[in-house]
Amino acid sequence: MPQGPSSTPEIPETGSVPKHIAIIMDGNGRWAQSRYMPRIAGHKQGVETVRGVIKACMERGVAFLTLFAFSSENWRRPTDEVTSLMQLFLGALEQEIAKLHENGIRFKVIGDISKFDPKIVEFIHLGEQLTANNTRLTFTIAANYGGRWDIMQAMRKMMAQSKDLPLNFEEESLAQYLSMSYAPEPDLFIRTGGEYRVSNFLLWQLAYTELYFTNTLWPDFDEHELELAIQSYQQRERRFGRTSEQLQMLLVR
Ligand code: IPE
Ligand code: IPE
Ligand code: MG
């Protein structure tokens, strides 16, 4: 039987806690506007939600948490909002890095950070270096990230490193250059804010991820909401192309 290369050969145990949760934190602007507040107030409240979600993930033994904070398309927003978001990002980095480290969290950023203010870049490097050997939870922020950018930069790196690249290279050869090569592919994807799209998030890595959408706006997403998403995940049957009967056979073995 032909067995193509697959980066998802393992079947996680039914009912298990997802090892890797990836979230599109959406709905900050609407949360603020519904309260007659400026959009940035929603983003500020969204940072509070991040704290709660990190804590809840640690308590549940989630190993990887990845949050989409700023997409490669978000530069299209009004300059005021972009500037405020950058200030908020810098402030959060300044305040939180030491706390993340105290809690044994490894901090990572994926995305094209060369476009950010040098101060932000400096804090990112500082945070990544300081927390590099922590093992409790790997917390990744996707900033100026795009799934297409990721695949393109991986391709460029691979081509630059091997001049006589064979044309029939395997998925794994490329995958090692993707910016999240240090993490398993997400088990559970959550999008808050009621939109049903992926908005150029982890395109490659979401191939077999279980998708969960909620109307709850990100600032309102709490531990209970996270629990609902995990419970939904635990009821899914992850087949990775197999039949349900095959899975039953694998489980009884
Ligand atoms: C998500 O919230 C945060 C970012 C994209 C930075 P939004 O700002 O997209 O909130 P809505 O979708 O306008 O409500
Ligand atoms: C996706 O949210 C990006 C982030 C949460 C950082 P958007 O609000 O930018 O997505 P679209 O524009 O509605 O697809
Ligand atoms: Mg949005």
UniProtKB/TrEMBL annotation:
GO molecular function term, any single one: ditrans,polycis-undecaprenyl-diphosphate synthase [(2E,6E)-farnesyl-diphosphate specific] activity
Cofactor annotation comment: Binds 2 magnesium ions per subunit.
Cofactor(s) needed for function: Mg(2+)
Binding site for substrate: 27-31, 39, 43, 71-73, 75, 77, 191, 197-199
Enzyme Commission identifier(s): 2.5.1.-
Coiled coil: none
InterPro entries: UPP_synth-like, UPP_synth-like_CS, UPP_synth-like_sf
Entry binding sites for Mg(2+): D26, E210
One cellular-component annotation, GO: cytosol
Gene Ontology biological-process entries: polyprenol biosynthetic process
Active-site residues per Swiss-Prot or TrEMBL entry: D26, N74
Keywords: Magnesium, Metal-binding, Transferase
PROSITE patterns tied to this protein: UPP_SYNTHASE
Function according to Swiss-Prot or TrEMBL: Catalyzes the condensation of isopentenyl diphosphate (IPP) with allylic pyrophosphates generating different type of terpenoids.
Subunit structure: Homodimer.
Family: Belongs to the UPP synthase family.
Protein name in UniProt: Isoprenyl transferase
Source species of the chain: Nitrosomonas oligotropha
